Amino acid sequence: MDITQFISTHRKLLLVGFLVLILIFITTLPLYARASDVRVLTTILIYVVLAVSWSMFSGTTGYMSLAPAAFFGLGIYTMALLQKELPFFLIIPIGGLVSFAFALLVGLVTLRLRGIYFAIFTFGLVIFMTEIIQFLETRLWGKHGQAIIPIDNETLLYTMLGLVVVTVLAAYLIRRSRYGLALLSIGGNEEAAEHMGVNTTRTKVFSFAISSFFMGAAGVIAAPSLIYVNPNIAFSLFYSFMPILMAVFGGMGQVYGPVVGAVIFGYLENTLRAQLYTYFMLGFGIILVAVILFLPNGIAGLVPTLQDKLGGVIQKLRKGGQAGQHADT
Amino acid sequence: MPILEGQGVNKYFGGLAAVSNVDFHVDQGEIVGMIGPNGAGKTTLFNLISAALPISSGEIRFKGRKLNGLKPHQICQMGIARTFQETKVFGNMPVFQNVLVGAFFGSTNHVTQAEAAGETTQALEFVGLSAMSETPVKDLTLANQKRTEVARALATKPELLLLDELMAGLNPAEVSEAMELVTKIRDTGITIFMIEHVMKAIMGICERIMALHHGEKIAEGTPQEIAANKKVIEIYLGEEAHAGS
Fold first, then answer.
1. DSSP state, B59?
2. Best exposed site among A76, A291, B32, B141 by fewest CB in 10 Å?
């Protein structure tokens, strides 16, 4: 009978129920939706993986990585090169591991760079990858680009959904663990974290690599719907900037922030692209500026504010004493 | 027996000697103070002990073990904790979370969630911040931010605590409270090495004081000896008196 009471006591249950509903919606979509809608949804799920895995490292430590495209592209190329040798489902973890290993290597060399220098380096990494693959293709393999055998839409959707579940779960578990606390302390004050016993180098390098694993795996699953890739497509900087915009838009204080950001932005991108063609970036830019101006903590930052306000209203309506506790939760 | 010992410690920044040929020792259970004018090399010496900076030459030993070449997190896990002259807190995190970092990572053995939470609660109670454990640290007063730093350092279970100007910027009432806190920490068996400009504090609680000037140690002794030392008066205390504080 008392709805706020019900919500606050059965929070976990409601959340799980809500998640199950979303999962059912996504898994049954191919039964009644058009093929293009299934593809749009798959694209949105790719963005979810990229945004969540990006904020896993950059959102907590504050190290602005512009490298998602490098790891995503590595996944795409792993798929392109291995598709004839190995089954699809085996290539997914391999693509992830290739990115993981590459990130580990890069991280060991560069994570001593701070602030803007790290961002510039990771930006350069994407361009480096484009150039090196281009070089390999033209000089060694004697061709430009790779053809990728398509896989049916439903398989791609379900696999990507599986990866989303794994990524979000990993992000959630990391955030709750001592490891997540170490990452947050690095973001808070790296020097202090170091002096409190946190092995900052190891923590940073390892989490950078973990987040790259998911980006690489996403690249493998994204590859088949591209049909043809060349280095400029696979390592497009678009895949670096989109996850960042989405994570900022959604808010990085909570795991669900980047998810919400990716879903809204992914949907917007598709509709704006359909209506405005190449001008869609203009619409994007306006929305992003508005969000940064009016919602500095992203969409997720709205939730506590709304809760406070709603709690206040409810309290006023009731004029009772016990309402206070809901405002806090 | 000295818990911390330095021999011929040097630190150069380019050609400039920030710490020059300093010998020092801190005995188990002592409160040792370090004074000196700004730029004397006090914080640099702390940075050398805690490995924030690599030592140029000489060596520092903790419980007989050489510290040269270790990383800051290793120093902390060995049992040396520190606070900072300009507070370095995790501003957006609640007080509890700040201290929890120290409890989780401050020792080499694996600490369970429950143990870490217990130690954190204890440390917060010890410094008197229990009531504010859910407040983001950036919203606290300077005195309470410094207390958070102390609690965070205590949660790492140190044997030696380096306090870098704990009293700077505090009002007289807060200074007395901080002095009480320092003695209380020592009474739990933790050795204390502190840099301080507040004369009342350093003279009141230290058993031994060393004075640095231009990176060199110019005097060492009991508070009375230091207060009577001509060199110290000329270089440091005199200047302070002149400044009217």
1. E
2. B141
